[in-house]
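Q: Hi! Curious about what Multisubunit sodium/proton antiporter, MrpC subunit looks like structurally. Here's the sequence.
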Amino acid sequence: MSANLVLVVVVGVLFAAGVYLLLERSLTRVLVGVILIGNGVNTLFLVASGPAGRAPIVGLNDVDDMSDPLPQALVLTAIVITLGVTAFLLAMAYRAWQLNGNDEVQDDVEDAAIRRRAERDEVSSSYDDSAGGTMDEEGADEPSAEGEPAAVGPEGERP
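A: Let's find out. The predicted structure is below.
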């Protein structure tokens, strides 16, 4: 039994377009990406389930001619999950539009601070390249020159 090649290509295209749209900064594009991936998953379940058969009712049809009901149940579950995620993303996009006037995902302030700190550490004298890119013990406890707090210790507390 071979899967229909056209459906396999459709699944690949849906996944590729969905992943591409998930990487965008606009929530509406992310929403369309989630919907495309959800449809790709549903199509993949149906392709993987094999050829169509008779209704899976014991006594009415021969067991060898019945279709497998599990992939159909998985598709129904995936539809419900996709609907819930779609509703959540629509609510987030609408709220972002109300607050900011656009639905662009903004950079996190903490992520930007960590990125700047990592760039400074690579050019500092305390950056230990031989240890896989970690800081050595001498420069770990020193506060930064720009007023940022000192590095976090191994147990999570500040020195």
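A: A fun detail: The CA atoms of residues 114 and 120 lie 10 Å apart.
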